[in-house]
Write a structure and sequence with these properties.
There is one protein chain. This protein has a single domain, classed as Jelly Rolls (Sandwich), CATH 2.60.120. The protein has about 240 residues and is an alpha+beta fold. A 7-stranded mixed beta sheet has the order 1-4-11-6-7-9-8, with no helix packed on it. A 5-stranded antiparallel beta sheet has the order 2-3-12-5-10. Helix 1 runs parallel beside helix 3. The protein contains 4 helices and 12 strands, in the order ααββββββαββββαββ.
């Protein structure tokens, strides 16, 4: 029993260290005013420069990352029981080097789409509830629950859902496109969020509250350029 308690504390400490980063916010100077007017907000991380987000003529959110990391979020609620399919187009023009997405401090990615779900205390582990309590206190606001991340990046060595190294409780990653994907071309994605949530967490999903897009190039000190467009929910 004693080793299990030590592991629990260690996971909690890792989660709490991520909490202070995850809840940090900065002025929206790098976010296009047109995106802000459309309900987008930028989430930055402590002591890390943020990305640059712009709205182009086609309605795409363009993302430029230069040794930086941040996420642009907006409300895009959905009930996965009724509209479980999320579709979008994305394009990478300049990729970051292949990275190990399981390694904290070495998990850069060229693009990512994030889904934040409603908080359901009955589904949460003790670690999740403890981390959330501190996170909510630091952020000064009510926060979503679990997180799924769809990634363009990685080193091609991981299949299926893997733990987010910064948020080991309640956050999972899956690579949709790796370094072999074509550059400069719009690629369409269609994911079954209801099935993905069950595969990642072993339970039926609650409602989705927010959606985010971002890139991460700070660990490799590199650069990434890409875009995401036409995010929309669909029935099966």
């Amino acid at each position: 029993m004693q080793p299990k308690r030590r592991v629990g504390r260690r996971r909690l400490l890792v989660g709490l260290s991520a909490v202070s980063l995850w809840s940090a916010r900065a002025p929206l100077a790098a976010l296009d005013p047109a995106l802000e007017a459309g309900g987008w907000r930028e989430m930055t991380f402590r002591d890390k420069p943020g990305n640059h987000y712009r709205l182009d003529g086609s309605g795409a959110v363009t993302i430029e990352s230069r040794a930086s990391v941040s996420v642009a979020w907006r409300d895009l609620p959905a009930d996965p029981r009724r509209t479980p399919i999320l579709r979008w187009l994305w394009r990478v023009d300049l990729p970051v080097p292949p990275t190990d997405l399981t390694r904290k401090g070495g998990d850069d990615r060229s693009l990512a789409v994030y889904l934040a779900f409603a908080w359901v205390p009955e589904q949460a582990s003790l670690v999740e509830r403890s981390v959330r309590a501190v996170l909510s206190s630091l952020a000064g606001q009510d926060l979503p629950g679990r997180l799924l991340t769809y990634v363009w990046g990685g080193n091609g060595r991981h299949d299926g859902w893997i733990d987010n190294p910064y948020l080991p409780a309640g956050a999972k990653l899956r690579v949709l496109r790796d370094s072999s994907a074509p550059l400069g071309t719009w690629l369409e994605e269609r994911v079954d969020v209801s099935a993905d949530y069950r595969a990642a967490f072993g339970e039926d999903p609650p409602e989705v509250e927010r959606i985010g897009v971002g890139a991460d190039s700070d660990d490799t000190g590199s650069a990434a350029k890409g875009a995401v467009r036409d995010l929309a929910w669909h029935p099966r």
